[in-house]
Amino acid sequence: MGNKNIFSKIKKYISKLLDSTLLIVIALLLIFLTMLYVYIRPIDSNIKNDSKEIVAYIDGEKLRFNEVEKRAEETFYIDKNNTIENLGSDTYKKELIKYVVYEDILYRKAKEENIHVTKQEIEDTYCSVEKFITSKFNLDDAEFKNKYADDKNKLVKSMRKSIKAYKYLDEKTRVSDSEARAYYDAHKDKFREGVYRDIFISTVDSSGKKLSKEEIDNAENRANEIYRKLEEGCKFEDLEDEYSEDIEGTIPGGLGDLEMSFTDQKLRNKISTLKVGECIEKPLRSAYGYHIIKRVGTEEEPFDKVKEEIKSMLSYKKQIKLIESLMKEYNVEIKDKYK
User: What stretches pass through the bilayer (predicted)?
Assistant: First the structure.
C-alpha cells in the first residue's frame, strides 16, 4: 500500500473524531513519522550517526542528533524502546530532522505572535492519537501506555509545542472560500470534464456475481460485434438504444463509478483524452463488463465540488512559502547529508 493511500485513510479516520481542521492537521503530524517508520523500516541505513553530531543550525543554535532523537521519543513517533539509530532507514532520519527543524521555527514564530493553546485542544489531540494508534496496532489502553506513552505529562508537554506550532501554521495558511472562488474563476479551464455515453455489456448478474467463462466470452463477442457495426457507420445512439444493458447511458464527467472500476491507468487515460465526438478504439473490459464509450461533450465542474480540493492546494502552496520564509528568517542550515 502506498503512503498516499495510507495517509488518506488516516485523515478520513481522524476527521470522524474531530470537528476542528487544526486538530486533524496536528494529529496527522503526530502520527506521520510513526507510520513512516512502520512502512519503511526494512530499508537499510547508510547514514552512521554520532549522537552528538550537529545535524542543523537554527538561528546560530546547534541542533544535535541526540536532540532530534529525544524529540522523537517524546512524541512517540517511534516505540519508546527503540532509538532512531536502530530504525534502519536514512529516509526516516532525514524526514525526522526536517520535521523537528520545521516545527521548531514554527514554534518560535508562534511564541513571538502569542499563539495560545487550550487544555481542551491538547486533550482532544492526545485522545485522537491514542484512539488511532490503539485501533491501528490492536493495542489496549495499558499496552498503548506501556509502548508509547508511559509518561502522559511528558508527552502532553511535547504535544503542546506541536499544537502551538501548527496552530500558527493553520492561521497563516488557511484559505477562505473567497480565495478559492477567485482561483476557480481565474482557472476554469482546469475544472472542465468530459461527458460520455456508454454502450455496456454486463459480465455480472443482477447480484453482482461474476458470470461463467462461457457467458463472459459471449459478452465479449457481442461487444466486438457492436463495435464492428459502429465502424461500419451505424450511429452510436442507435446501437446504444438497441444493445446497451446499462440502465443509465450517460456517464457524468469523470466517468463516476465507471472510472473506479478500471484498475488499469492506461484505460482511464484513453477515455480522458477522447475529444468530443470520438469513441474508444475498441471495447474496454472493466470489473462489471465491456464498455464502448463515446465522449459527447464537456461540462464545467461546479465550484462546490472542487472547493475543498482548491483550498487544500492553495493552503499547501502557502505552507511552502511560509516555511521557506521562516527558514531564511531563522538562518536555518541543515547539513547536506540530511537534506
Answer: 21-40
